[in-house]
Specification:
2 copies of one chain form a homodimer.
Chain A lengths: L1 E8 L2 H19 L4 E9 L5 E8 L2 H8 L2 H10 L7 E13 L1
Antiparallel strand pairs in A: 1-3, 1-4, 2-3
């Protein structure tokens, strides 16, 4: 399994405007092959800071996600948005423990 | 590195009431030894659904976090809250790729 964690920082009012398109992108991604978990969430401490958490079956699924048409549409939308910071990292999952 | 991902589902109005204590718990945790990233965030699609994302230096740091006094205080607070679902999993991080 591949775990993706990270964040993207935008102005809170911009995030509000993006919500309908974000929802569409999230729903389309959840229907992709190999997607186990895909979520964007607004940080409880810092408005406008989007936390990203994903689980994918394998690297191939994650690679295919990056090339999906709905991701092209989402990136085109973001091209007009000021991103004030972004870091997203994928890790292959090793030993697992429930908490 | 250890990656923690998961969620906790509570009523949106309960989440709003918990925000000040959540902030305190998050800030205390970020000051812990071995904490690289610690965030709770409200799902963009489902209000009240808290997404959890954490990065820790090692299992020992994560274990120590579970025993921290501020986590006892947080759990005591949650004892009076209806949790409608919770799943939190820790994984040892293998191969890493930036996205």
């Amino acid at each position: 399994m591949i775990i993706v964690t990270g964040h993207m920082r935008i102005a809170p009012e911009v995030l509000d405007a993006l919500r309908p398109d974000a929802r569409k992108t999230i729903e389309a991604t959840r229907a992709e092959k190999g997607c186990i978990l895909y979520a964007w969430a607004e940080d409880l401490v810092e408005p406008g800071l989007i936390r990203i958490v994903e689980r994918w079956e394998d690297w191939a699924s994650l690679d295919a996600h990056g090339k999906a048409p709905h991701m092209d549409a989402w990136r085109a939308l973001l091209a007009d948005v000021e991103i004030m910071g972004r870091e997203v990292i994928a890790h292959e999952a090793g030993e697992e423990r429930g908490l």
